[in-house]
Specification:
With 119 residues, this protein is mainly α. It is 62% helix and 0% strand. α2 runs parallel beside α3.
Length: 119
């Protein structure tokens, strides 16, 4: 799961400065990187992750496992990119994404999970 998260993160690095890639695509891969990282973190507890896309619920699961997740609460703003972009035909995300900020937050999370899995 972490390897898949790292693949989405690698796409974000390429997409950050590429204005031909829409914010919807960038946001989708950001949400996917976060979702997969959170699921990998849950799996590190030898607990099966819920089969959902809701970042808030995944963070809640980690909190219930005793993890400190406050630093990543802001990432729940990526939820609409998984739901609306994936399931609502013709949906357009009107919010402008601060790609640099999102990339830094996602990278921080993925690196944290990688370090937890190494220990």
């Amino acid at each position: 799961m972490l390897a898949k998260s790292q693949e989405d993160l690698a796409a974000l690095v390429v997409f950050e400065e590429n204005t031909t890639i829409s914010d919807e695509i960038f946001g989708f891969h950001a949400q996917q990187a976060v979702e997969k990282a959170l699921k990998a973190w849950i799996l590190a507890h030898d607990v099966e992750h819920p089969h959902i896309h809701d970042l808030n619920a995944l963070l809640g699961e980690l909190k219930s496992l005793g993890e400190s997740v406050a630093a990543y609460q802001s990432l729940i703003e990526l939820n609409p990119f998984a739901i609306q972009f994936r399931y609502e035909e013709g949906s357009s995300m009107s919010a402008i994404v601060d790609r640099g900020s999102v990339l830094r937050k996602v990278k921080s999370l993925v690196e944290l999970v990688a370090s937890k899995l190494r220990s």
